[in-house]
Amino acid sequence: MITICLLRHGETAYNADGNKYCGRTDIPLTEKGLSQAKRMQELLKDVIFDQIFCSPLQRAKNTAEIASGTPEKVQVDERLIEVDFGQWEGKRSEDFIAEDPNSWYNWLSDPGSFEAGRTGENASQVINRLDNFYSELLDKYDGQTILVVGHNGVNRFFMAHQLGMPLKNYRRIVQENSALTMVTLDKHNGFNLLKLNA
Question: Residues at the annotated binding site for substrate?
Fold first, then answer.
């Protein structure tokens, strides 16, 4: 079994500006985002992480470095990068829905089959890379405590999939910026959600 502290990065300007879809756009944390990461460092100060992994995007990497208090241990893993949102990138949902309502309807009804923003990833592709990542953690680091810093989309898809939810319901899981989610993964007993948004 592995214990995972699963974080979403701290706030970015896109989060603050009407929650624009950030996806692969590599923007930094805001001052509030930095404060959120520092709050998480205080919350986690007594936790010793055996391994620390993050998305390659700077908002996740910076959150991991600050929240862990051990930036030298942070390992970047491409499989944790945010969903590719295609033509929705950098836009608010109300704007891209008005431009292309069918694309949004298809994504909401079956994200496993339809690409986000027509040219991005579908949820099945996201789950495949996340399954690969987390299976590798189980194989290599059994018994360890691991910090993983990712993004809103990938983290929610991972949890929805592990909880046996239809992927179209992933948006029903809310993960706040730089809030603590704790889970365990076990080869025999599967996935358990211990805390959400602490």
Answer: 8-15, 59
